[in-house]
């Protein structure tokens, strides 16, 4: 049986960043085996971040074609080819898979890659595709997550999409039901609605994205409603069946039962860790009650020679994100090699929902600060008060700064605005370095930018933002 210095199970963000880091930190070209069931690059490039953001970008442009009609720009005679859009998304993912993963892997002569499903047969040995066995001195589990399929009566007889296969879509749906209003459900619902699909979103909770401020998730809901998305909150799907090629969902809520009929169903009801098919008990690796692999802050599992990183790892992550998976892969690599890693500050990791406008947040909500210190100081500012809003011709948006009133330090920043994904990192720095509200006010921003709204949330503690000239320090 061949023995490797390192075995990496999974070829996504966590697996790849760990692979690169191991090679960077070691001089003697260790022998590394990488095993992956799915395509190189994992979820993000193949079925996650990249295709979803490519779709969203087109839907955003379609919506904004005539945004500057009042400034004399009227666009007529355009054509949206749905099939071509999806073909181009598939092209994009394969181009990026090749340039960012395949080509890079091919250049590493100390790495052997095997396509297949790995399972543990004991504490240091894996078996691939129930056949070949390999020993590893250190093993990283980076197997990611997969869509969670809710246990709805009748679902097993229905053809539905998840984010794993929606990118294979050929024709444009007419009516689409989306189960779940998390980040993925919201992003795709808005994009499909803007492409002309009649979208119905069913959610058991009373609002989307409960980890952000309630007023912001309600604003976002209203924006998506204006795009045509129909929401059914506090609603469960009781049963699903199909009839004459259509899918009928029986919904139940406080107002009783009713049905919706669609031609397409997308399940976006969260994701579950890929830990259940690995025979982890044979390796002495424990999981928590939800199946996430238990790790310490150096990504070490309950077996000292086995590490876990990314979606499958039970770290206090604010969401399953590519960025976190990649960082955890780096921490795991350093730990496996014996280099003291810089541990991750999970409190300052930004989360973004790529709707239009984007929702970006970091840190705590007002409610959470109230729970932890018994008081909270917060200020919110409407985006329409920012000069950049008038320049962009976009009024929707809001930002809220959450402060610990006893220390004056920033605890949370929540922004609903165009390009919020680009500016939220300010909030991460404020939280990470325990900046105070004065620091938010004193930082000179660029005029005119969306980013100024962050400063304005700080200024709102000392003056009326609706009575401010364009630039005031
Ligand atoms: C639609 C969608 C949109 C997203 N958008 C964003 C975004 O905009 N920004 C962001 O930061 N994050 C986004 N994410 C989340 C992001 O994609 C994931 O957090 C990230 O890809 C996780 O990386 P990972 O390495 O942990 O797992 P993955 O990338 O899922 O990699 C896991 C790998 O393990 C393999 N594997 C699984 N089991 C086995 C086994 N037994 N043996 C061998 N191989 C195995 C898989 O085939 C895969 O290659 C999105 C996710 C989705 C679904």
Rg over alpha carbons: 24 Å
User: Which architecture name of the largest domain does CATH use?
Assistant: 3-Layer(bba) Sandwich
Number of DSSP helices? Answer: 14
Low-confidence parts, pLDDT < 50 over ≥5 residues? none
Give the number of domains. 3
Oligomer: single chain
Q: Can you give me a brief rundown of this structure?
A:
By secondary structure, the chain is α/β, with parallel strands linked by helices. Helix content is 30%, strand content 24%.
Keywords:
FAD/NAD(P)-binding domain; about 25% strand; 5-stranded antiparallel beta sheet; 14 helices; Enolase-like, domain 1; 3 domains; binds flavin-adenine dinucleotide; 7-stranded mixed beta sheet
Structural description of this entry:
The protein is of the alpha/beta class. It folds into three domains: 2-147 and 272-346, FAD/NAD(P)-binding domain (3-Layer(bba) Sandwich), CATH 3.50.50; 155-269, FAD/NAD(P)-binding domain, CATH 3.50.50.60; 357-467, Enolase-like, domain 1 (2-Layer Sandwich). It is 30% helix and 24% strand. The protein contains 14 helices and 21 strands. It has helices at residues 13-25, 42-46, 49-64, 82-106, 183-194, 214-226, 280-283, 322-337, 366-373, 387-392, 420-423, 425-432, 437-442, 452-459, and strands at 2-9, 32-36, 111-115, 118-122, 125-128, 132-141, 145-147, 175-179, 198-202, 230-232, 236-243, 246-253, 256-262, 264-267, 271-273, 306-308, 351-353, 358-363, 377-382, 398-403, 410-417. The strands form five sheets. Strands 1, 2, 3, 4, 5, 6 and 16 form a seven-stranded mixed beta sheet that branches. A five-stranded antiparallel beta sheet has the order 17-18-21-20-19. Strand 1, helix 1 and strand 2 (32-36) form a beta-alpha-beta unit. Helix 1 runs parallel beside helix 8 (322-337) and helix 3 runs antiparallel to helix 4 (82-106). The longest helix has 25 residues, at 82-106. The mean pLDDT is 96. Bound molecules: flavin-adenine dinucleotide (FAD). Residues 9-15, 35-38, 42-44, 48-49, 52-53, 117-118, 142-144, 163, 184, 274, 277-278, 310-311, 320-323, 325, 354 line the site of flavin-adenine dinucleotide.
């Amino acid at each position: 049986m061949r023995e490797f210095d390192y075995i990496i199970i999974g070829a996504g963000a966590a697996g790849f960043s760990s692979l690169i880091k191991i090679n960077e930190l070691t001089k003697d070209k260790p022998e590394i085996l990488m095993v992956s069931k799915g395509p190189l690059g994992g979820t993000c490039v193949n079925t996650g971040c990249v295709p979803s953001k490519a779709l969203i970008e087109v839907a955003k442009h379609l919506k904004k074609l005539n945004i500057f009609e009042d400034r004399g720009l009227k666009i007529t005679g355009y054509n949206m080819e749905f099939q071509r859009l999806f073909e181009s998304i598939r092209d994009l993912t394969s181009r990026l898979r090749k340039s960012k993963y395949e080509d890079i892997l091919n250049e590493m002569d100390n790495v052997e890659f095997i396509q297949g499903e790995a399972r543990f047969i004991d504490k240091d040995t894996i078996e691939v595709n129930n056949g070949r066995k390999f020993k590893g001195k250190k093993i990283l589990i980076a197997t990611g997550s997969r869509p969670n399929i809710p246990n709805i009566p009748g679902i097993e007889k229905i053809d539905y999409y998840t984010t794993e296969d929606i990118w294979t879509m050929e024709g444009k749906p007419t009516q689409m039901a989306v189960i779940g209003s998390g980040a993925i459900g919201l992003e795709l619902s808005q994009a499909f609605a803007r492409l002309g699909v009649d979208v119905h979103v069913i959610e058991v909770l009373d609002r989307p994205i409960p980890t952000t401020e309630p007023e912001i998730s309600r604003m976002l809901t209203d924006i998506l409603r204006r795009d045509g998305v129909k929401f059914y909150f506090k609603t469960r799907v009781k049963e699903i069946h199909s009839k004459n090629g259509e899918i009928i969902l029986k919904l139940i809520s406080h107002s009783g039962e009713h049905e919706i009929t669609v031609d397409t169903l997308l399940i976006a009801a969260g994701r579950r860790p890929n830990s259940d098919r690995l025979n982890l008990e044979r390796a002495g690796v424990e999981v928590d009650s939800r199946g996430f692999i238990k790790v310490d802050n150096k990504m070490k599992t309950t077996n000292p020679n086995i590490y876990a990183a990314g979606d499958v790892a039970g770290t206090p992550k604010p969401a399953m994100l590519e960025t976190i998976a990649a960082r955890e892969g780096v921490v795991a690599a350093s730990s496996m090699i014996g280099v003291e890693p810089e541990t991750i500050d999970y409190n300052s990791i930004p989360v973004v929902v790529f709707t239009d406008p984007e929702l970006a947040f970091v840190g705590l909500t007002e409610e959470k600060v109230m729970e932890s210190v018994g008081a909270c100081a917060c200020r919110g500012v409407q985006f329409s008060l920012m000069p950049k809003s008038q320049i962009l011709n976009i009024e929707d948006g809001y930002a809220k700064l959450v402060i610990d009133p006893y220390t004056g330090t920033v605890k949370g920043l929540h922004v609903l605005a165009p390009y919020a994904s680009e500016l939220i990192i300010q909030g991460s720095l404020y939280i990470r370095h325990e900046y105070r509200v004065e620091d938010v006010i004193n930082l000179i921003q660029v005029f005119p930018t969306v980013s100024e709204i962050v400063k304005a949330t700080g200024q709102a503690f000392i003056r009326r933002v609706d009575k401010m000239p364009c630039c005031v320090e």
